[in-house]
Amino acid sequence: MTEDAPAPRRRGRPSRKTASEGPDARTRILEAARSEFAERGYDRTSIRGIAKAAGVDAALVHHYFGTKDEVFAAAVEVTFEPALVVHTVLGGPPEGLGERLARFFLSVWEDPATRSPLLAILRSAVTHEAAANVLRDFVLRRLLERIAAELDVPDATFRAELAASHMLGIAMLRYVVRAEPLASADPEEIVAMVAPTLQRYLGER
Questions:
Q1: Cβ of 119: how many Cβ atoms within 10 Å?
Q2: I need a surface site. Which of 35, 37, 73, 205 has the fewest CB within 10 A?
Q3: pLDDT tens for residues 101-132?
């Protein structure tokens, strides 16, 4: 090796200097991962791409999160508590259930802080089983089962799943496909159109 040749690159744990960039680097990685997964879906997102977007070495991504699946799980951790959702949706007159559900659902998607991980889940669930599991676990077990348990209607779980399919279809067309005029419609206009259908699913015996 000549004096001008670069030193061989070490593999494994990042240097103390790199790792000492600490929470700021970790936060950048998570933000970059959310953006990459939301924009590209699971299959087209890579550790190298996340690292490049975050301005760090790929070894640092592995150091903090391990595998791509683990990066995905950390990136899509939803930033609201399902119990609060259930209280928001069910805590009012029965005749307003459909409207409250539609308004809450759209408020979550309209907020950039919660839209990004949800987009990542929705884009990736179509092609990747880990993402589909996240969607099933969060939407079906943590949300719908709790809501269904409080509904005084026949086939409550089935009805709650129908409501979820309706809202996820809207999310897909509005936020992923960006189909017009739905993509540009005022959220309150969507609530007004959708609420009666959700009310029929969840409130009519």
A1: 21
A2: 205
A3: 899 889 888 988 788 888 888 888 878 887 78
Burial of 32 (0-12, 13-18, 19+ CB in 10 A): buried
Give which of 67, 65, 66, 47 is closest to 57, Cα–Cα: 47
Ranges under pLDDT 70 in the chain: 1-23, 78-83, 138-141
Model confidence, pTM: 0.70
Give the orientation angle of helix 112-125 with respect to helix 68-75, to 10 degrees: 140
31: Cα separation from own chain's centroid: 13
Characterise 154 by phi-psi region: left (phi > 0), alpha (psi -120 to 50), beta (else).
beta
Residues 6+ apart with CB under 8 A from 37: 45, 72, 75, 76, 119, 120, 123, 124
Angle in degrees, CA 133, 187, 156, rounded to 5 = 45
Whether the CB-CB separation of 158 and 202 falls below 8 Å is answered with no
